[in-house]
Design brief:
The complex is a heterodimer of chains A (170) and B (168).
Chain A: E1 5-12, E2 19-22, E3 31-38, E4 49-52, E5 58-65, E6 70-78, E7 81-82, E8 97-104, E9 113-121, E10 131-139, E11 148-151, E12 162-168
Antiparallel strand pairs in A: 1-12, 2-11, 3-8, 3-12, 4-7, 4-11, 5-6, 5-10, 8-9, 9-10
Chain B: E1 4-10, E2 16-21, E3 30-37, E4 45-50, E5 57-64, E6 69-74, E7 77-80, E8 92-99, E9 107-114, E10 124-131, E11 140-147, E12 152-158, E13 165-167
Antiparallel strand pairs in B: 1-12, 2-11, 3-8, 3-12, 4-7, 4-11, 5-6, 5-10, 8-9, 9-10
Classes of the chains: A mainly beta (170), B mainly beta (168).
Chain lengths: 170, 168
Amino acid sequence: MATALTPLANITLGAAAASVTFSSISGAYRDLMIVMVANAVTYTSVGTQMTMNGSPAASGVYASGNGSTAVSGTNSGDSNVYFVPTMTMANGTTEPFNVTIHLFDYSATDKHKSGLLRANRAANTIGGSAGSGMQAFRYATTTAVTSLVISSPGDTFAVGSSFALYGVSA
Amino acid sequence: MFGTLIGSVAVGAGGAATIDFTSIPGTYTDLTLVLSARATSTTATITLAFNGSSASFTGRYMQGNGAAASSTTSTTLIGNSPISTDTASTFGNLLLVIPNYAGATNKTFSVDVVTENNATTAYQQIFAGLWSNTAAITQVTLSLANFAQYSTAYLYGTLKGSGGASVA
């Protein structure tokens, strides 16, 4: 039942950073998976996002619950996939924001790039927006994914934030 | 996520109150637990403990029941299971992912759950969980009243790579 997961890259921040880039991504796999566990130095209400090489237009549909209300919505209009726009990182390290992304057929050149992500932040005592969310997204390009940039405008990722990239074999 | 199989449990005749993975090595980066479960009673709630403790858990979840979506908070509750009065021979599924389980920070985790029932009510749930404890996780315990025979659980470990990313 185990899938063929190959670790491709990983970084755990030793200093605060505005963004993290996975570049020169091998096209040898079928899918990519990204696991992020992150905190902000100082959160904003903008949220965390991901762009791919060439910055094609991106869109997404999400559903999330914050512990009292369930909502659903869409986002589009720029080149960013937002990690469930209703949720943000915490203003500190005790309530990490955990996101898992599955990007399907990332190296194909005959289809747009689609994916699924889950975002989780269980507690909300140190600022920002908590909840459990899920999102389907698409980059409107048939170009293969060779690089991904994860950032949070207005924030910096705090020391200890981790970002791991895996290849999934067919 | 999945990865390398660490252990598995298959519930035998008579059922079981807990499914327990102990002595989990700290050599992986993330853990994934895949559960197929059914309750022998009409109590549907599956709860979680780490290292034998049910303290210091915080959670928020969203669920749909076929008629409406809702959201609420939880502590050790991580999902529902089909119960004894639901469609026979029907089990639900739960996927628990714990990134950085052996690190020295508080532990965040995610849970995705579906229950199955050939009726108007069944559940899909997504949970965000936090264990406010910096100890490495060496034991994962799931509890249900009770797990029925043929319930199964598989625990996997995923190991991260190194380098290959740049920061700005």
